[in-house]
Request: fold
Amino acid sequence: MNSIDKIERLLPKEIEKRSFEIIGEELEKLNIKLDKEKEGVIKRAIHTSADFEYAHTLVFSDNAIKTIKNLIKNGADIVTDTNMGMSGINKKILAKYGGEVHCFMADEDVASEAAEAGVTRAYVSMKKASRIKKPVIFAIGNAPTALVCLYEMYQNKEYIPAFVIGVPVGFVNVEASKLLIEETDIPYIINEGRKGGSNIAAAICNAILYELDKE
Reply:
């Protein structure tokens, strides 16, 4: 058989459906049965990355899915640590509930304050986000220092995040920063280990938004 004969001829709207069918088939072959409530988030992370490790490494605080859905339904905003993450989140669905997506990383005041204080822009971005006058879901896919800042504000009783999606990717402080959030009582979805990324943070947000849109 030629390689061209292996191509599935699908309409654009059929491609995602077929992808999720394949994910389901692969999970079954691996003898992995997902918790029904968390299934949508885990499968969308796998869909975004083609990495089945997310079936094992994504961890959820108690009632995480219910909590984040209620936050969105009540108009919570989402703050990301990259413009890539912000661009990937479905703003149309979020807006139905009164929410907006923010990323402060490119703001001039954030850059100047970070340079003056000798910290990362992600760290300062979290400080700026803490001044939003409504509940905020933090979708962190790149910067461990964003999680460190959220943890420190929580510990110092300066600010309590409504929810943290903590999936930064990399090597320096990545695993430790995720563990910090797990040690708090902040509701979270965390990917343990080094893997993650802005695309995974956005995928988790979208999994929740798409489920809400169907309900």
Q: What stands out?
A: The domain at 57-214 is CATH 3.40.50.10230 (Rossmann fold). The mean pLDDT is 95. The chain has eleven helices and six strands.
